[in-house]
Design a protein that fits this description.
The chain is an alpha/beta fold. Helices cover 41% and strands 14% of the residues. It contains six helices and seven strands, in the order E-H-E-H-E-H-E-H-E-H-E-H-E. It binds NADP nicotinamide-adenine-dinucleotide phosphate.
């Protein structure tokens, strides 16, 4: 057996004091991820569009003793993303971790799907990852280290009916993740795609036909996975991780 005292043991990264920018942090997986980072001692920068909910999440974390900063941001908007990173640097002078989690689900068969809805789904789930990575990378490169976690979906790999825009966005985001990983691996920046199955979050509000909520993952399961990946020892990278409810795709 290898124990922590063994010469073969590897040391996990200490997340204490690390600055983590988390998009979509006002609800669901992003909110749970912010909590999990804060519990690990991280300084969390929270981004989402709705100021009131975002500020409430930050206030709750601050009340529990964490360092949390709410920066209302539409991650599809280039100027807003630039401001998010600039403000983070003003306050914390670094960006250690970027969790690209913001996303929306909007569903319907191709023949009925409106072009504006297509753009909205692609912009939120795909373009936003490019924008946030583009502006978070310069400080990471200057620091000589960083981690980018892209929360995608099993829909990146599986064709779900009435989900063409969502599946296309997530599959595109998986391709983007792989290209990004190969572009920055020499600079000590680790990039990971997390592909969850169904998670019980507000994502499903307004989706009339949904899997059984009781059988879904909890947002905390995905959050725990993300924080665990960020704490992995240097000298390794988890490039892709699929997180499923025990009963599989529901
Ligand atoms: N729930 C699932 O079953 C499931 C499964 C696999 C993958 N995922 C993926 O996991 C991620 C998080 O999903 P979730 O289930 O936690 O969803 P959620 O509960 O609906 O939360 C989505 C978050 O993203 C934010 N957001 C949406 N559009 C945004 C924009 N343009 N700019 C900034 N923030 C934006 C929302 O806040 P505002 O509306 O205030 O901006 C909210 O904080 C998404 O990428 C989703 O595709 C979810």
């Amino acid at each position: 057996m290898v124990t922590s005292n063994s010469p073969n043991a590897v040391e996990r990264e200490n997340l204490d004091g690390k600055v983590a920018v988390i998009t979509g942090a006002s609800k669901g997986i992003g909110k749970a991820t912010a909590s999990a980072f804060a519990a690990a001692g991280g300084k969390v920068v929270l981004a989402a569009r709705t100021r009131e909910t975002l500020e409430q999440v930050a206030a709750d974390l601050q009340e529990s003793g964490a360092e949390a900063l709410a920066i209302p941001t539409d991650v599809t908007d280039v100027d807003a993303v630039q401001r998010l990173i600039e403000r983070t640097l003003d306050v914390y002078q670094r960006v250690d971790i970027l969790v690209n989690n913001a996303g929306v689900g909007y569903f319907g068969p191709v023949s009925d799907f409106e072009p504006d809805d297509w753009d909205m789904v692609l912009n939120s789930n795909l373009k936003a990852i490019y924008l946030c990575a583009k502006y978070a990378l310069p400080p990471m490169l200057a620091q000589g280290s960083g981690q980018i976690i892209n929360v995608l979906s099993i829909a990146a790999k599986v064709a779900f009916e009435a989900s063409a825009a969502y599946c296309a966005a997530k599959a595109g985001a998986l391709a983007l993740t792989k290209v990004l990983a190969s572009e920055v691996r020499q600079q000590n920046i680790r990039v990971t795609a997390v592909l969850p199955g169904s998670v019980h979050t507000p994502f499903w509000d307004g989706v009339p036909e949904h899997p059984d909520f009781e059988q879904m993952l909890k947002p905390e399961h995905v959050a725990d996975t993300i924080v665990s990946v960020c704490g992995q020892p240097s000298g390794m990278v988890t490039e892709e991780i699929v997180v499923m409810p025990p009963l599989g795709i529901l």
